[in-house]
Amino acid sequence: MKNSRLNNFLSYLFAILLLVLVAFQKHPSLNLNTSSPKKFENFSFLACCHHKEKNQDNFKNNSVKKTLDLFALTLNSEIHQLKEKKHLLKINTSKKSKEKKFNKKNQISKALIEEKLKPENSSKIKSKIKISAKSALAINPKTNFVFYQKNPRLILPMASLTKLMTSLVAMKYFPLDLVLEVPEEINKIESANGRLKPKDRFYLKDLIHLMLIVSSNHAAYTIEKNLNIVPLMNLEAKKMGIKNTFFKDASGLNNKNVSSVKDISDLVYYILKEKPKIFEIEKIEESKIKSLKGNIYYLKNNNYFVKNPNFLGGKTGWLDIDFQNLVSIFKIKEKTIIIVVLGSKDRFKDTEKILKELLK
Predict the structure, then answer these.
(1) Which residues are within 8 A (CB) of 55 and not within 5 positions of it... i.e. 6 or more apart?
(2) Residue 72 shares a structural domain with residue 97
(3) What percent of the chain has pLDDT over 70?
(4) Could you tell me the pLDDT band of residue 333, with boundaries at 50, 70 and 90?
(5) By the 8 A CB rule, do 257 and 248 touch?
(6) 0.90 cut: is pTM over it?
(7) Would you say 203 and 177 are in contact if contact means Cβ atoms under 8 Å apart?
(8) Number of domains comprising the chain
(9) Domain containing residue 155: CATH number
(10) Could you give phi then psi for residue 342, rounded to 5 degrees?
(11) CA 138 to CA 123: how far, in whole Å?
(12) CA–CA separation, 41 vs 8, rounded Å?
């Protein structure tokens, strides 16, 4: 009985000691004397204490690692934000640059539009100039700057100015060494110059020379009958956007071949860019052509400005003595200027009046 009580007492004492030691581990600030660790060497709980200390070290190490990882993550995040800011700054700078260019371009376009929308009778040349033409235009085609205009929207017969489009389409769509035969009915076609013999045969390039240098209606009719060229001429006008222009034949004898001075200047500018050879031919003073049958045709240019050093080419046309047309291209102060007069009583005199004012 006594032994049993003693055993119980020792168990209680051992338990209390364990509780004190555990409390010390959880609260290391408690002032217990642990200077003699040898007292605990024989107790198994020392291993437990050592395990806890190791866990605490691991915990500290893990905490340091987590702190470093968090710092690295924060640093990477800040670097990424800086890159994003730099990228956005670059985009904004590029956007502002593009907007600046766009606004500048719009200002130029607006200026050109305003120039085009000015009243018909406004003029950069002194208003004292008087011409007989029903409609006229002096323009820099590259910038659309109008130096002089009179009724520019008036639609009038083109007469032989038609041959500019005939030549353009012939050169654009057909080989120049193509051989064409003059129709049998050719003598029924009116032609003051460049009259051809029925059944004679020519290269297409020679017929174009006949049309441009002496305005041969026979040459234009031969091209029209062999190549059915008129639908192509109207198609080309549509593609160019010259809406007031229409062709009924290839020579201009038909009064239904109509246009405006602005449309004609657009056509001339297109030819200058795409087929400048046409106006080089227009500058030839004299030439001769030999048909494939051996017939020789002498050509003499009747354009008043052909000897003018500033003259780059042009085309004459007329319906009668009181309705004369003329297209002229001049190099003035390093600028290309197109002058068109329609329905004039003296086409060369009217053009010369405009030219003199431009040269001042």
Answers:
(1) none
(2) yes
(3) 64
(4) confident
(5) yes
(6) no
(7) yes
(8) 2
(9) 3.40.710.10
(10) -125, 140
(11) 10
(12) 24
